[in-house]
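Mods, move this if it's the wrong board.
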Amino acid sequence: MSVADHVKSVTKHLGRQADDLRRGDLAHLVKMAPVLTRAMDTLSRAPVESGDEEHLLNLRQTAEHNTQLIAAALRGIKAARAVLEQASPASFTGYDALGRSSEIGATRPRVERRS
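Not the wrong board. Structure tokens:
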């Protein structure tokens, strides 16, 4: 296989990676990571010939685009995590049949006594 063939294979995998990033399909990203790694390893061992530079440059641009997508996904995950950390615990105040109020769903810290 020529470098151009290997580049096509890696580019195909990078395209799928970009699609997964846009869809937020993290499970498929994890599943396909070893496949992309193997394709990149195979490419790195292929002998570079005259005229392969353009193929490699295009591959580099595709990889850089995916790097930007990954960075954006990480920023989104961090932002979502920050929102979730600030959210109040899922609880509400309810009333029993006698009209007494109590907080439902929240855990209260308590001290356990042991003898």
